[in-house]
Amino acid sequence: MQSRRLIDFCRFAFVCACGIAPIAGWATDIAQFKVAKGSVYLERSGKRSPARVGTHLQATDTVVTGADGVAGITFIDNSLLSVGPNSVLQIERYAFNSTTHEGVFDTTLTRGTLSVVSGKIAKQSPDAMKVRTPSSILGVRGTEFLVRTGE
Amino acid sequence: MHARYLGPLAALLVLCGCATSRDLVVLLPGKDGKVGKVIVSNPKGETVLDSAYAAARTTDGKVRRDRASQNEVQSIFGETLEAMPPRPISFTLYFESGTDEFTEASKREVKGVLAEMARRPAPEITVIGHTDQAGTDQMNDALSLQRAKRVKSILVGMGIPPSRILTAGRGRREPLVRTADGASEPRNRRVEISVR
Predict the structure, then answer these.
(1) Preferred mutation among A70, A145, A148, A149 to probe B, highest tally of B CBs within 10 A
(2) More confidently predicted of A96 and B33
(3) pLDDT tens for residues B42-61?
(4) What is the pTM of this model?
(5) List of chain A residues whose C-beta atoms are within 8 Å of the C-beta of residue B21
(6) How near does any CA of chain A get to the CA of B196, in Å?
(7) Domain count of the fold of chain A
(8) N or C terminus: which one in chain A shows less Cβ crowding within 10 Å?
(9) Contacts with B89 (C-beta within 8 Å, 6 or more apart), sequence order
(10) Would you identify the CATH topology of the domain B89-195?
(11) Average pLDDT over residues A8-12
(12) Pairwise CA distance, residues B15 & B9, whole Å
């Protein structure tokens, strides 16, 4: 487990060192809400605010939905995600180089349901996209899949 | 370094011991008919999902390979699937050779881009430049980005807010037509607009 995390960390550090950081001009925005119905919140640095269609997301943001909430999000590498009601999804890491398509995309679903259509990051590098739940790790080779965690 | 990992490790051990988490992962057929692959693993095992509706079920910390019916998918994930954003769509533009002018066909494509943006929520585009196989990687990366920026400025002139446009230079990495290294090929010298 330790070495796995270390490898993940090194992979991330390498990607950052290669200048894959967010694209200039858009600072650190990596994604945008395209769908937000019912109670949908964005948590950033411990602060929670309502999310709407057009709200931008950054790496390490967390998306939280209530019992009546669903949200759909599009990333700059054309990855698509949606979460169902009563869900908590954290973007752990996101980096995308729009020239080489190298990057990393790690999320954790701590509760609820998630739908994914992977984008250019997963297409370029087979180990670049991971989804974690409290008990499992999903290595994503592509492209469309669903995840539920919890009871 | 070591202490940093004790927390997550302990949490993982507790979770596996108590089996509080019950996961379901289902692989779906892609819209293009292709089926991808997802590897589901935890400390007690691993399973590979590589066919449509293949499923991994995790109970008591164990991963079991199974299948999911379309009915089960609909009842558990129906609302989630309905919230998926619209799929990105791509348009390809060409220039009249040696000019800044779009070809006639490309002018129609630009209209398509605008129409597509009008029907999407919070629309954004990435303008991606591509080159042919003539020249070095470095030259082509710069050239393709330059082309993308030129198209961005044309689109801004047509009224698309610059904040909604990203540019990228893919260089010669994604030719439309396969050619020999070093070959000049007009069909590969293009700009792609991805609307999402």
Answers:
(1) A145
(2) A96
(3) 988 999 999 999 999 998 88
(4) 0.86
(5) 133-136, 149-150
(6) 7
(7) 1
(8) C
(9) B116, B194, B195
(10) 60s Ribosomal Protein L30; Chain: A; (3.30.1330)
(11) 51
(12) 10
**Quick one: average pLDDT of B140-160?**
94
pLDDT digits (tens, 9 = 90+) for B57-78: 998 889 999 999 999 999 999 9
A79 min Cα distance to partner chain B (Å): 9
Spatial CA neighbour of B131 closest among B97, B104, B169, B89? B169
Contact A115 B80 (CB under 8 A): yes
Domain ranges of chain B: 19-82, 89-195
Nearest to B94 by CA among B188, B172, B177, B180: B188
Q: What is the pLDDT of residues A110-131, one digit of tens each?
A: 999 999 999 999 999 989 999 9
State the smallest CA–CA distance between residue A47 and chain B in angstroms: 23
Inter-chain CB proximity A70 and B83 less than 8 Å = yes
At residue B49, φ and ψ (nearest 5 deg) are -100, 120
| Pick from B73, B84, B173: CB nearest A72 | B84
Instruction: Give A 33-72 residues with CB within 8 A of chain B.
Output: 33-35, 37, 53-54, 70-72
Domain range for A44 is 2-149
- Measured on CA atoms in the order B14, B19, A59, A45, is the torsion positive or negative? negative
